[in-house]
């Protein structure tokens, strides 16, 4: 497994990382921990979890695997997070994560799920960042990091003051135009970059016809093509794939190690095709950002993609967990259609809004 330097740190992480948020049977700790250990044996050494994944079961599963990995004479790195809004919230989360993970020190500890620049300012005011830096001085964490869903153009506001060693962000062949500037902002500061949702929340492998153009050759699978797209970008330290079981691990490892590498020419052509060929899907270009009612149109439109294509997520999963958005925000829409006028793809945005509102599943 290829190892890459994580920014300026001395950590060398596997280009394929383990996302501990999709275990097939999370109540079966033995089976799930065995999946983690299987990935470790295959060369994966970066393991990402969080307190809220499966209501803290994910950290316990990874912690069970940690006890076994400690017996091996090979390095591994554990990443977890806190969405706490105050210093005391973060300290509590950190102490509980250390206990669940069977660790004295967490390698990568994230200021988790920064959604807006106002959210970022609130974290600063609440003492969150200072508490994370204090924990580093105490030896409880090694590398402070941030996890964000901000537009790429805004991510530099978080990174510019030098608090963090790296950033974790959603990035794939679906939304590269939206997040590319964030990756560049991290690269310019020589920070580690971890990408999540590398297969677009299931959109890429489950929609062969739509995404076939990203393949290097017709025989290449979309899983392989989606992962090779990321591997071809040296700014990316590791990509987190959510694994359900050992079979998922084997498929991803094979795609990374034996897959056809992307040429620079194919990467260029693919990016151009993404910009030109997505006639029905929102590519989150954010040209619609100047809504008079301050509706973040592109976030709702990205979620509506999941009506247009099969995927592991639903539109409402995306709105809640990826964007932290509520449907009632759309009630502010005055139907001025400014967003439709500036949309480079000429999408029926107001129709998509109505679709989101009308098909919301009952509780």
Task: Offer a concise description of the structure.
The protein is an alpha/beta fold. 43% of the residues lie in helices and 14% in strands. It has helices spanning 29-41, 57-69, 87-101, 117-125, 128-137, 152-159, 176-188, 208-211, 222-231, 246-257, 264-277, 297-308, 315-322, 338-342, 349-358; strands at residues 3-5, 12-14, 16-19, 46-48, 77-82, 106-114, 141-148, 166-170, 192-196, 238-242.
How would you portray this structure in words?
The chain is α/β, with parallel strands linked by helices and 363 residues long. It folds into 2 domains: 3-267, Alpha-Beta Barrel (TIM Barrel); 297-358, no CATH class. The chain has helices at residues 29-41, 57-69, 87-101, 117-125, 128-137, 152-159, 176-188, 208-211, 222-231, 246-257, 264-277, 297-308, 315-322, 338-342, 349-358; strands at 3-5, 12-14, 16-19, 46-48, 77-82, 106-114, 141-148, 166-170, 192-196, 238-242. An 8-stranded parallel beta barrel has the order 3-4-5-6-7-8-9-10, surrounded by 7 helices. A two-stranded antiparallel ribbon has the order 1-2. Helix 1 packs across helix 2 (57-69) and helix 9 crosses helix 10. The longest helix has 15 residues, at 87-101. It is globular. It starts with a strand and ends in a 5-residue tail after the last helix. The model has no long low-confidence stretch (mean pLDDT 88).
